[in-house]
Structure formats: C-alpha cells, structure tokens
Amino acid sequence: GGEVSELVYCMADVQVRPIVLNKKIERVPPSPLNPKTLPFECFSAADAETLSPDDFDNHVGAVQQSLSDKTSIGDKLNVLAHIERLCQSPPLCDALAASELSLTLVRIMRRSKSPQLRARVAHVVGLLVRHTSLLSVDLQGGGLVVALTEGVRDREVRVRRPSMAALGELLFYVASQED
C-alpha cells in the first residue's frame, strides 16, 4: 500500500513553477531591443522603479501611444521588448497591469494580423500576469481570457505557445486568489 503512494507522490507535484520563461518548457530568446529607435526614453526596470509616480505614468502613456495603429510592426516589437524588460520588476508589473496599456495589449492581440506581433504580445501578457499581484477588473473584463483562448486556437504555433503559457499563468492567478 505505502509503496504505491511513494511512487505516485512526488515533491515536484507540490512545487509551483512559472510557465512563462520556464527553461524546462521552452527557451525563449530575449527580444531584440534597439533603444535608439524608441520614441521615448528607454529605462531599465531598476531605473523605472526610481521614477516618480507621475513620471512613470507619463512614460507608460508614451509607451502606449507608441503602440498605436499607425506604428509599424517592427517598431511595435521594439516597444514590446522594452515592456518585457520592465516586466522584470513585480511592482512595475502591478502598475502596468493596472494601466490602460494592458488593455491596449489585449486589443493588439485580438486585432493584429501579424503572427509575430500576436505572439510577442501574448508573451508580454504572460509576463505581466506572472509577476503582478493584482489584475484590474477592467483587464479581466477587457477580453483577456477571450484574447488568450483565441491565441491558443491560432493556426500559428508561435502564437499558440505563448498564448497557452499566458493562459496558464492567468488560470494559476485566478485559482490562487481568495474569494
């Protein structure tokens, strides 16, 4: 009796591991970032943490503006690489997830025709969900689940994988919340 339970039970079963950027699942190379072509000042996560709340809000507004429909896909990918670097900081993730930028990311994921852009947005959303302590009600109601499930059903595997990882992070977030 006890021998079977020892075989079935494994310490790894009770350890929580991230899905996004988990090297045991998939190696995701860092996105190339060219700070010189960004239409705003490029901050590291550590430098962005030292900004005043107003300065950080202004920076997020500039980042969001640079993701507008008029921006080329290459420039949007560069902006997303900058956001990825900001996502290294949980406090910054909290601020980004609570901002309009998160809704803009969901909108891009749902509307973009570019698989490369949809995949990168799904990856960034996964990082946001993984590192944030609170997802805003606006984001939850803003189509995040729908965008990620659409990404999981995408024809392109490069969109499906980060969408599934982000959806997994979101499901873990939801399951770990208290009523």
From TrEMBL:
It comes from the Eukaryota. One of its GO terms (molecular function) is microtubule binding. PANTHER family: SERINE/THREONINE-KINASE ULK4-LIKE PROTEIN-RELATED (PTHR46562), SERINE_THREONINE-PROTEIN KINASE ULK4 (PTHR46562:SF1). This is MMS19 nucleotide excision repair protein. It comes from Hemiselmis andersenii (Cryptophyte alga).
